Amino acid sequence: PKTNVVFLKVHKSASSTVMNILFRFGEMHNLTFAFPARGGSQLFYPHHFLARFVQGFSPESAPQFNILCHHMRFLRPEVQRVIPRTAIYFSILRNPVQLMESSFTYYKGTSAFSRAHSLEEFLSQPYRFYNPAVGDSHYARNLMTFDFGFNPDADISPKRVHLMLKAIEASFDLLLISEYFDESMVLLKEIMCWDLDSVVSFPLNSRHSSTRSPLSDSMVEKIKNWNRLDWEIYSHFNKTFWERIDRDIGRERMQREVRALRERQAELAEICLQGRGSVAPKDIKDSSLMPLQFGNAKILGYNLKQGLDKKMEHMCRRMVTPELQYSSALYKKQFPQKPA
Protein backbone atom coordinates (compact mmCIF):
# COMPACT_ATOMS: atom_id res chain seq x y z
CA PRO A 1 0.00 0.00 0.00
CA LYS A 2 1.20 3.51 -0.85
CA THR A 3 1.40 5.70 2.25
CA ASN A 4 2.57 9.11 0.96
CA VAL A 5 -0.29 11.10 -0.50
CA VAL A 6 -1.23 14.69 -1.39
CA PHE A 7 -4.95 15.36 -1.77
CA LEU A 8 -6.01 18.76 -3.07
CA LYS A 9 -9.30 19.22 -1.25
CA VAL A 10 -11.35 21.17 -3.79
CA HIS A 11 -14.34 22.87 -2.17
CA LYS A 12 -17.88 21.40 -2.41
CA SER A 13 -16.80 18.32 -4.40
CA ALA A 14 -17.37 15.36 -2.03
CA SER A 15 -13.90 16.17 -0.71
CA SER A 16 -14.92 15.84 2.96
CA THR A 17 -15.82 12.20 2.30
CA VAL A 18 -12.43 11.61 0.65
CA MET A 19 -10.71 13.35 3.56
CA ASN A 20 -12.44 10.96 5.98
CA ILE A 21 -11.05 8.02 3.97
CA LEU A 22 -7.53 9.49 4.26
CA PHE A 23 -7.96 10.21 7.98
CA ARG A 24 -9.01 6.60 8.63
CA PHE A 25 -6.21 5.13 6.52
CA GLY A 26 -3.60 7.39 8.14
CA GLU A 27 -4.82 6.61 11.65
CA MET A 28 -4.90 2.86 11.01
CA HIS A 29 -1.34 2.86 9.64
CA ASN A 30 0.11 5.38 12.15
CA LEU A 31 0.98 7.89 9.42
CA THR A 32 1.83 11.55 10.04
CA PHE A 33 -0.44 14.31 8.76
CA ALA A 34 0.65 17.74 7.57
CA PHE A 35 -1.69 19.66 9.87
CA PRO A 36 -2.27 23.40 9.68
CA ALA A 37 -0.18 25.23 12.29
CA ARG A 38 -1.95 25.36 15.66
CA GLY A 39 -4.46 22.75 14.52
CA GLY A 40 -6.66 24.87 12.25
CA SER A 41 -8.89 23.36 9.58
CA GLN A 42 -7.25 25.07 6.56
CA LEU A 43 -3.64 25.65 5.50
CA PHE A 44 -3.96 29.46 5.58
CA TYR A 45 -6.39 29.30 2.67
CA PRO A 46 -7.00 31.36 0.50
CA HIS A 47 -3.26 32.16 0.38
CA HIS A 48 -1.10 29.94 -1.81
CA PHE A 49 0.26 27.05 0.23
CA LEU A 50 3.62 27.53 1.96
CA ALA A 51 5.51 24.78 3.79
CA ARG A 52 5.78 26.92 6.92
CA PHE A 53 1.98 26.76 7.30
CA VAL A 54 2.42 23.14 8.47
CA GLN A 55 2.70 22.37 12.20
CA GLY A 56 6.14 20.91 12.93
CA PHE A 57 7.67 21.73 9.53
CA SER A 58 11.42 22.26 9.68
CA PRO A 59 13.26 23.80 6.68
CA GLU A 60 16.43 21.92 7.68
CA SER A 61 14.94 18.40 7.55
CA ALA A 62 13.82 16.29 4.58
CA PRO A 63 10.06 16.08 3.91
CA GLN A 64 8.75 14.12 6.89
CA PHE A 65 4.93 14.01 6.57
CA ASN A 66 2.89 11.26 4.89
CA ILE A 67 -0.49 12.85 4.17
CA LEU A 68 -1.44 16.38 3.16
CA CYS A 69 -5.21 16.74 2.81
CA HIS A 70 -6.50 19.95 4.43
CA HIS A 71 -7.86 22.83 2.35
CA MET A 72 -5.08 24.70 0.59
CA ARG A 73 -4.44 26.71 -2.54
CA PHE A 74 -2.06 24.47 -4.45
CA LEU A 75 1.60 25.39 -4.98
CA ARG A 76 3.60 22.29 -5.85
CA PRO A 77 7.19 23.46 -5.05
CA GLU A 78 6.09 24.25 -1.49
CA VAL A 79 4.14 20.99 -1.14
CA GLN A 80 7.30 19.09 -2.15
CA ARG A 81 9.12 20.56 0.85
CA VAL A 82 6.63 18.82 3.14
CA ILE A 83 5.73 15.47 1.52
CA PRO A 84 8.24 12.95 0.06
CA ARG A 85 8.63 12.97 -3.71
CA THR A 86 7.25 9.44 -3.98
CA ALA A 87 3.77 10.75 -2.99
CA ILE A 88 0.68 10.17 -5.11
CA TYR A 89 -1.01 13.49 -5.94
CA PHE A 90 -4.76 13.47 -6.54
CA SER A 91 -7.85 15.63 -6.38
CA ILE A 92 -11.58 15.40 -7.05
CA LEU A 93 -13.63 17.62 -9.38
CA ARG A 94 -17.33 18.42 -9.60
CA ASN A 95 -19.55 19.66 -12.40
CA PRO A 96 -19.23 23.47 -12.07
CA VAL A 97 -22.99 23.90 -12.47
CA GLN A 98 -23.78 21.92 -9.31
CA LEU A 99 -20.67 23.34 -7.63
CA MET A 100 -21.91 26.90 -8.10
CA GLU A 101 -25.43 26.07 -6.88
CA SER A 102 -23.92 24.47 -3.77
CA SER A 103 -21.47 27.35 -3.19
CA PHE A 104 -24.25 29.94 -3.37
CA THR A 105 -26.07 28.21 -0.52
CA TYR A 106 -23.02 27.30 1.56
CA TYR A 107 -21.11 30.58 1.13
CA LYS A 108 -24.17 32.86 1.27
CA GLY A 109 -22.42 35.14 3.77
CA THR A 110 -19.54 36.02 1.43
CA SER A 111 -19.29 39.45 -0.18
CA ALA A 112 -20.36 38.36 -3.66
CA PHE A 113 -23.41 36.34 -2.60
CA SER A 114 -24.73 38.09 0.51
CA ARG A 115 -26.63 40.86 -1.32
CA ALA A 116 -28.09 38.66 -4.08
CA HIS A 117 -31.51 37.29 -3.18
CA SER A 118 -31.07 34.28 -5.45
CA LEU A 119 -28.48 32.65 -7.67
CA GLU A 120 -30.61 33.77 -10.62
CA GLU A 121 -30.32 37.40 -9.55
CA PHE A 122 -26.56 37.03 -9.08
CA LEU A 123 -26.09 35.52 -12.56
CA SER A 124 -28.29 38.13 -14.26
CA GLN A 125 -25.72 40.84 -13.41
CA PRO A 126 -22.76 39.22 -11.65
CA TYR A 127 -20.57 42.34 -11.63
CA ARG A 128 -23.20 44.15 -9.55
CA PHE A 129 -22.27 41.79 -6.72
CA TYR A 130 -18.84 40.42 -7.61
CA ASN A 131 -15.62 42.33 -7.02
CA PRO A 132 -12.46 40.28 -7.74
CA ALA A 133 -10.41 42.55 -5.46
CA VAL A 134 -12.33 41.47 -2.34
CA GLY A 135 -10.65 38.72 -0.29
CA ASP A 136 -13.48 36.16 -0.39
CA SER A 137 -14.51 36.68 -4.03
CA HIS A 138 -12.96 33.35 -5.12
CA TYR A 139 -15.96 31.43 -3.71
CA ALA A 140 -18.16 32.99 -6.41
CA ARG A 141 -16.23 32.28 -9.61
CA ASN A 142 -14.06 29.44 -10.95
CA LEU A 143 -13.53 28.02 -7.46
CA MET A 144 -11.74 24.87 -8.72
CA THR A 145 -9.41 27.00 -10.87
CA PHE A 146 -8.58 29.05 -7.76
CA ASP A 147 -7.95 25.98 -5.57
CA PHE A 148 -5.54 24.58 -8.19
CA GLY A 149 -3.57 27.82 -7.80
CA PHE A 150 -4.61 29.70 -10.94
CA ASN A 151 -6.23 33.10 -11.52
CA PRO A 152 -10.03 32.66 -11.59
CA ASP A 153 -10.47 35.97 -13.46
CA ALA A 154 -7.96 35.27 -16.22
CA ASP A 155 -8.75 35.71 -19.92
CA ILE A 156 -10.04 32.50 -21.43
CA SER A 157 -7.77 32.08 -24.43
CA PRO A 158 -7.21 28.58 -25.90
CA LYS A 159 -3.49 28.92 -25.09
CA ARG A 160 -4.11 29.78 -21.44
CA VAL A 161 -6.59 26.91 -21.03
CA HIS A 162 -4.13 24.50 -22.67
CA LEU A 163 -1.28 25.57 -20.38
CA MET A 164 -3.48 25.31 -17.28
CA LEU A 165 -4.62 21.78 -18.15
CA LYS A 166 -1.03 20.72 -18.92
CA ALA A 167 0.15 22.13 -15.58
CA ILE A 168 -2.53 20.18 -13.69
CA GLU A 169 -1.67 16.99 -15.60
CA ALA A 170 2.02 17.48 -14.79
CA SER A 171 1.32 17.82 -11.04
CA PHE A 172 -1.41 15.24 -10.43
CA ASP A 173 -1.40 11.46 -10.85
CA LEU A 174 -5.18 11.17 -10.63
CA LEU A 175 -8.19 13.47 -11.04
CA LEU A 176 -11.40 11.94 -9.73
CA ILE A 177 -14.98 12.98 -10.55
CA SER A 178 -17.49 13.40 -7.72
CA GLU A 179 -20.51 12.53 -9.93
CA TYR A 180 -18.88 9.08 -10.35
CA PHE A 181 -17.78 8.73 -6.76
CA ASP A 182 -17.80 4.93 -6.56
CA GLU A 183 -15.84 4.56 -9.81
CA SER A 184 -13.44 7.19 -8.43
CA MET A 185 -12.88 5.16 -5.26
CA VAL A 186 -12.13 2.04 -7.32
CA LEU A 187 -9.52 4.03 -9.29
CA LEU A 188 -8.04 5.39 -6.07
CA LYS A 189 -7.88 1.89 -4.58
CA GLU A 190 -6.02 0.69 -7.70
CA ILE A 191 -3.41 3.45 -7.80
CA MET A 192 -2.81 3.31 -4.02
CA CYS A 193 -2.80 -0.52 -3.82
CA TRP A 194 -5.35 -0.35 -0.98
CA ASP A 195 -8.03 -2.84 -0.03
CA LEU A 196 -11.79 -2.37 -0.39
CA ASP A 197 -12.44 -1.36 3.23
CA SER A 198 -9.90 1.46 2.91
CA VAL A 199 -12.08 3.26 0.35
CA VAL A 200 -15.58 2.42 1.60
CA SER A 201 -17.36 5.46 3.08
CA PHE A 202 -20.61 7.18 4.01
CA PRO A 203 -21.25 10.58 2.37
CA LEU A 204 -20.15 13.44 4.66
CA ASN A 205 -20.97 17.17 4.56
CA SER A 206 -24.01 16.56 2.31
CA ARG A 207 -26.86 19.05 2.19
CA HIS A 208 -30.48 18.36 3.03
CA SER A 209 -32.60 18.28 -0.15
CA SER A 210 -34.68 21.19 1.18
CA THR A 211 -31.71 23.53 0.60
CA ARG A 212 -31.08 22.46 -3.01
CA SER A 213 -32.43 24.58 -5.87
CA PRO A 214 -33.49 23.29 -9.31
CA LEU A 215 -31.77 25.06 -12.21
CA SER A 216 -33.33 26.07 -15.53
CA ASP A 217 -31.50 25.45 -18.82
CA SER A 218 -30.70 29.15 -19.17
CA MET A 219 -29.26 29.19 -15.63
CA VAL A 220 -27.07 26.19 -16.46
CA GLU A 221 -25.63 28.03 -19.49
CA LYS A 222 -25.04 31.20 -17.46
CA ILE A 223 -23.19 29.21 -14.77
CA LYS A 224 -21.01 27.51 -17.41
CA ASN A 225 -20.15 30.86 -19.00
CA TRP A 226 -19.44 32.55 -15.67
CA ASN A 227 -17.22 29.59 -14.61
CA ARG A 228 -15.63 28.98 -18.01
CA LEU A 229 -12.22 27.99 -16.66
CA ASP A 230 -13.77 25.50 -14.23
CA TRP A 231 -15.86 24.11 -17.09
CA GLU A 232 -12.69 23.57 -19.19
CA ILE A 233 -10.99 21.74 -16.28
CA TYR A 234 -14.02 19.57 -15.58
CA SER A 235 -14.73 18.68 -19.23
CA HIS A 236 -11.12 17.73 -19.90
CA PHE A 237 -10.62 15.57 -16.82
CA ASN A 238 -14.05 13.96 -17.04
CA LYS A 239 -12.89 12.70 -20.46
CA THR A 240 -9.47 11.49 -19.23
CA PHE A 241 -11.17 9.83 -16.23
CA TRP A 242 -13.09 7.45 -18.51
CA GLU A 243 -10.09 6.97 -20.79
CA ARG A 244 -8.13 5.85 -17.75
CA ILE A 245 -10.86 3.42 -16.69
CA ASP A 246 -10.90 1.91 -20.19
CA ARG A 247 -7.11 1.66 -20.24
CA ASP A 248 -6.37 0.41 -16.72
CA ILE A 249 -9.47 -1.46 -15.58
CA GLY A 250 -12.07 -1.91 -18.32
CA ARG A 251 -15.81 -1.25 -18.00
CA GLU A 252 -16.79 -4.80 -17.06
CA ARG A 253 -14.33 -5.11 -14.22
CA MET A 254 -15.21 -1.58 -13.10
CA GLN A 255 -18.88 -2.59 -12.85
CA ARG A 256 -17.92 -5.60 -10.70
CA GLU A 257 -15.69 -3.49 -8.44
CA VAL A 258 -18.38 -0.81 -8.02
CA ARG A 259 -20.94 -3.49 -7.15
CA ALA A 260 -18.60 -4.93 -4.50
CA LEU A 261 -17.99 -1.45 -3.04
CA ARG A 262 -21.71 -0.67 -2.86
CA GLU A 263 -22.49 -4.03 -1.28
CA ARG A 264 -19.85 -3.42 1.38
CA GLN A 265 -21.17 0.09 2.02
CA ALA A 266 -24.73 -1.28 2.40
CA GLU A 267 -23.45 -3.98 4.75
CA LEU A 268 -21.68 -1.40 6.93
CA ALA A 269 -24.70 0.92 6.88
CA GLU A 270 -26.79 -2.00 8.16
CA ILE A 271 -24.25 -2.68 10.93
CA CYS A 272 -23.41 0.92 11.91
CA LEU A 273 -26.30 3.27 11.27
CA GLN A 274 -29.69 3.80 12.78
CA GLY A 275 -32.07 3.87 9.84
CA ARG A 276 -29.18 2.89 7.53
CA GLY A 277 -28.69 6.47 6.32
CA SER A 278 -28.18 10.15 7.08
CA VAL A 279 -30.50 12.37 9.11
CA ALA A 280 -31.28 16.11 9.32
CA PRO A 281 -29.18 18.10 11.84
CA LYS A 282 -32.12 18.40 14.28
CA ASP A 283 -32.31 14.58 14.46
CA ILE A 284 -28.62 13.94 15.31
CA LYS A 285 -28.59 12.56 18.86
CA ASP A 286 -24.85 12.62 19.61
CA SER A 287 -23.58 16.22 19.58
CA SER A 288 -20.00 15.03 18.97
CA LEU A 289 -21.17 13.80 15.54
CA MET A 290 -22.81 17.11 14.56
CA PRO A 291 -21.25 18.54 11.37
CA LEU A 292 -20.58 22.26 11.13
CA GLN A 293 -23.74 24.05 9.95
CA PHE A 294 -22.62 26.79 7.58
CA GLY A 295 -24.32 29.45 5.44
CA ASN A 296 -27.89 28.56 4.46
CA ALA A 297 -27.13 24.85 4.06
CA LYS A 298 -28.51 22.16 6.36
CA ILE A 299 -25.70 19.61 6.65
CA LEU A 300 -26.77 16.01 7.25
CA GLY A 301 -25.22 13.69 9.81
CA TYR A 302 -25.64 10.20 11.27
CA ASN A 303 -26.80 8.30 14.34
CA LEU A 304 -24.86 5.18 15.29
CA LYS A 305 -26.62 1.99 16.35
CA GLN A 306 -26.48 1.19 20.05
CA GLY A 307 -24.86 -1.94 21.46
CA LEU A 308 -21.99 -2.33 18.96
CA ASP A 309 -18.91 -4.12 20.28
CA LYS A 310 -15.92 -1.88 21.01
CA LYS A 311 -13.97 -2.56 17.80
CA MET A 312 -17.00 -2.15 15.54
CA GLU A 313 -18.17 0.97 17.38
CA HIS A 314 -14.73 2.54 16.86
CA MET A 315 -14.78 1.78 13.12
CA CYS A 316 -18.37 2.97 12.64
CA ARG A 317 -17.77 6.15 14.63
CA ARG A 318 -14.70 7.01 12.57
CA MET A 319 -16.71 6.66 9.34
CA VAL A 320 -19.32 9.23 10.45
CA THR A 321 -17.15 11.68 12.42
CA PRO A 322 -17.27 15.12 10.73
CA GLU A 323 -13.98 16.46 9.44
CA LEU A 324 -13.44 19.20 12.07
CA GLN A 325 -13.87 16.79 14.99
CA TYR A 326 -11.78 14.06 13.32
CA SER A 327 -9.02 16.48 12.36
CA SER A 328 -8.92 17.85 15.90
CA ALA A 329 -8.70 14.33 17.41
CA LEU A 330 -5.84 13.33 15.09
CA TYR A 331 -4.02 16.60 15.76
CA LYS A 332 -4.15 15.98 19.52
CA LYS A 333 -2.83 12.45 18.96
CA GLN A 334 0.06 13.67 16.79
CA PHE A 335 0.87 16.73 18.93
CA PRO A 336 -0.22 15.84 22.47
CA GLN A 337 1.74 18.79 23.92
CA LYS A 338 0.18 21.46 21.70
CA PRO A 339 -3.35 22.71 22.35
CA ALA A 340 -5.38 23.08 19.11
TrEMBL record:
Keyword Oxidoreductase included in the entry's annotation: no
GO cellular component, one term: Golgi membrane
Record-given protein name: G3ST2 sulfotransferase
Gene from which the chain derives: Gal3st2
Keywords: Glycoprotein, Golgi apparatus, Membrane, Signal-anchor, Transferase, Transmembrane, Transmembrane helix
Alphabetized Pfam families for the sequence: Gal-3-0_sulfotr (PF06990)
Family matches, as InterPro entries: Gal-3-0_sulfotransfrase (IPR009729), P-loop_NTPase (IPR027417)
Cell compartments where the protein resides: Golgi apparatus membrane
GO molecular function, one term: galactosylceramide sulfotransferase activity
